[in-house]
Design goal:
Keywords: Coiled coil
Helix content: over 70%
Number of helices: 5
Shape: elongated
């Protein structure tokens, strides 16, 4: 009961709208049983009642992020243009590098997909040539599919 005391008091005051000091020990235990029932069945109206400390940490992080976003749009009071321009260019270069890497990955994936389709087509052609009895053509295709063979 004492491990979940902050969550229990928050749930009691916000959800049940009951003051903890106004309850007798018996009523408090009954309310705590109801609280634990909701906790165990995951039927709380908010995630806050599962772990109050984690909830407040998340809220603080959100506030910090929101504050950083708002601070970037405000008026400057420090006039170190060169440093800000340098940081701006650095961020732009990083963004461009990330875009180039993403584009390279996309092109490699499409290229690999085409190569795999071509290999599958060549295997089918090789099997077809074997069935026809054209062993020279099948051997040529097999040689072309061999990964250890030097490229021509």
């Amino acid at each position: 009961m004492w491990n979940k005391r902050p969550e229990f008091t928050a749930w009691l005051s916000e959800v049940k709208q009951v003051n903890l000091e106004a309850l007798s020990n018996w009523e408090e235990k009954q309310m705590f049983k109801e609280f634990m029932e909701d906790h165990n069945t995951a039927t709380f109206p908010s995630k806050k009642y599962y772990d109050l400390d984690a909830y407040h940490r998340r809220m603080m992080e959100k506030e910090k992020k929101k504050g950083l976003k708002n601070a970037m749009g405000t008026e400057r009071t420090v006039f170190n243009d060169e440093e800000q321009r340098r940081l701006e260019l650095l961020r732009e270069r990083e963004r461009q590098k990330e875009e180039e890497v993403a584009a390279l990955k996309r092109s490699m994936q499409t290229g690999m997909a085409q190569a795999m389709k071509e290999q599958a087509r060549l295997r089918e052609e090789m099997m077809y040539q074997y069935r026809l009895g054209n062993f020279e053509a099948a051997a040529a295709i097999q040689k072309r599919l061999d990964p250890d063979a030097p490229l021509q």
